[in-house]
Each structure stands twice: as C-alpha cells, then as structure tokens.
Design brief:
about 55 residues; mainly alpha; single chain
C-alpha cells in the first residue's frame, strides 16, 4: 500500500513536458480576405460607373 502511494506521488511530481504548439497555416484566410476585398472593390467600382453613366 505504501509502495502504491509512493509511486503515485512520484508520478504527480514529474514535470510535464511542454506541448509543441501547432503551426497554423493562414493561407486560406489570406485567400478568403483577398477574394472578399476584390468583390467589395468591384461592387464599389460598378456602382461608381453606374452613377457616372446615369448623369
């Protein structure tokens, strides 16, 4: 019984090795932002040219 208690005490006192952080790829996020920005610019330009055409 004492040995079991001693073994559990040694397991709890061991330092936990740090977990390596996962590197996340942000390529998909960058592509999505570029596509969304392009759509916004195209919609603004089309509205601007439509405004110029109707004057």
């Amino acid at each position: 019984m004492a040995q079991i208690q001693k073994q559990t005490d040694t397991k709890q006192s061991l330092p936990v090795p740090p977990q390596p952080e996962e590197e996340t790829s942000l390529r998909g996020t960058f592509a999505s932002v570029m596509i969304l920005g392009t759509l916004i610019i195209l919609s603004w330009l089309s509205a601007f040219f439509l405004f110029l055409e109707r004057q």
